[in-house]
Design brief:
This protein is α/β, with parallel strands linked by helices and 389 residues long. It has 15 helices and 13 strands. The chain folds into 2 domains: 195 residues, Rossmann fold, CATH 3.40.50; 180 residues, Rossmann fold, CATH 3.40.50. The chain has a 7-stranded parallel β-sheet.
Length: 389
């Protein structure tokens, strides 16, 4: 079976190693030709080569698309220009001899823009759109994909209610699939983790971990809201005498230029440490083996007055699956994230708590891991394409 994949292989691209068990050939459609993988069964088709004049002009046009997300008329004018400017590549894509098209999956990875651009050239094919991330603001390409794609993949029925309320769309004639997540991790890694001794075996105190590409020292970021503001959670864990490590690539300072995480680290007596990102890309097994030594994994921070936190109530953070395959129990406060809470309670794979102090005497061996793999996800895609849509 062959597949046209619209949009890059979102991080970690390594999970797409599982795809070869289902797809003999994948045609990967991107804006440029920058990739971080070398899968032999994947053929990259880019609108332009990185660094060329054409690529720079395409980049300018895509920036205009970002500026016109809430202005459909202007957005479609730019789309028309992009189609004309890249017509030879688009015709080439239209001639690929497969009916199977997969578009995924965030609001920031260009896959929605590319789907709008390609739609007239692929309208006779089976287009499956997986949507993971969203924000409260109107986004025309998101509406377009929801309206025009044959099948929509969502994490849960809550996501469907969210989009119904956001766009007032009638989904009754759409093929909607729930409880699937492209963030499921590769079976290759889940089978190789060594699971060394937990840190808590030596220290006799629980060890919490936070994985976050960046963290904020104060609330107020428009896109992320409260989700990456961990100050209060960290302070609460320290007060309990427990340990917490933060793995991050960037600390965003306060408006006054203060790094609150560094301040807490200096005064925590060794209970809190800021570390660099675990290298899941270049040295994944070392990263997973390090992660597996922790007891509890923190997901998002939630603040009731933050509108992004409303979406996070039914979003599943990708770090949830990093914790799961590493034998780390994801934790969530009761009522903060009802989709994650449902998964945890159904599979006994984490902890829903009311007070963090409840975790101090928790026996982590009483729980099990929830490990659907990306291989499972690819087989589900195969079922979709083998069914009349």
């Amino acid at each position: 079976m062959e597949l046209i994949k619209i949009g890059n292989f979102d991080w970690p691209s390594s999970r797409w190693a599982d795809s070869h068990s289902v797809f003999d050939r994948i045609y990967l459609i991107q804006r440029d030709d920058v990739i971080d993988h070398d899968f032999s069964w994947v053929e990259l088709i880019s609108l332009s080569k990185y660094g060329t004049l054409k690529n720079r002009f395409n980049g300018l046009l895509f920036k205009l698309l970002d500026n016109f997300l809430q202005k459909p008329f202007l957005y479609n004018i730019v789309i028309f220009v992009i189609r004309i400017f890249n017509i030879n590549t688009l015709i080439k894509i239209s001639k690929i001899d497969t009916l199977n098209v997969y578009s995924s999956y965030n609001d920031y990875d260009r896959s929605d823009h590319l789907t709008v651009i390609l739609f007239p050239f692929l309208r006779d094919k089976k287009i499956v759109r997986a949507i993971k991330e969203s924000r409260p603001d109107f986004r025309y390409p998101e509406l377009f994909c929801l309206s025009h794609c044959n099948t929509i993949i969502l994490n849960s029925i809550y996501n469907l209610d969210y989009f119904k309320n956001k766009y007032k769309i009638d989904f009754s004639k759409k093929n909607i699939l729930f409880d699937l997540d492209e963030d499921w991790r590769s079976i290759v890694f889940s089978e190789k983790i060594k699971f060394p001794e937990k840190f808590s075996e030596k220290t006799k105190s629980k060890h919490f971990v936070i994985l976050s590409g960046r963290v904020f020292s104060e609330l107020g970021n428009v896109r992320s809201g409260a989700r990456q503001y961990y100050i209060k959670l960290i302070e609460e864990i320290i007060k309990l005498g427990q340990r917490v490590d933060l793995y991050t690539g960037e600390v965003v300072l306060t408006s006054n230029g203060i790094d609150l995480y560094n301040d807490i680290e200096r005064t925590s007596g060794g209970l809190f440490n800021v570390k660099g990102l675990l290298d899941f890309k270049n040295n994944p097994m070392a990263a997973y083996n390090t992660l597996s030594r922790y007891d509890f994994g923190i997901l998002h921070n939630f603040e009731s007055d933050q509108k992004v936190s409303y979406f996070d109530k039914f979003n599943i953070p990708n770090r949830f699956y990093e914790y799961q395959i590493s034998g780390v129990l994801p934790i969530v406060k009761k009522g903060d994230s009802f989709v994650v809470e449902e998964i945890i309670l159904k599979n006994n794979c984490g902890i829903v708590y009311e007070e963090l102090g409840e975790l101090s005497n928790c026996d982590v061996t009483e729980y099990k891991m929830y490990n659907p793999t990306f291989k499972d996800y690819c087989f589900k895609l195969k079922e979709i394409y083998n069914t009349d849509i």
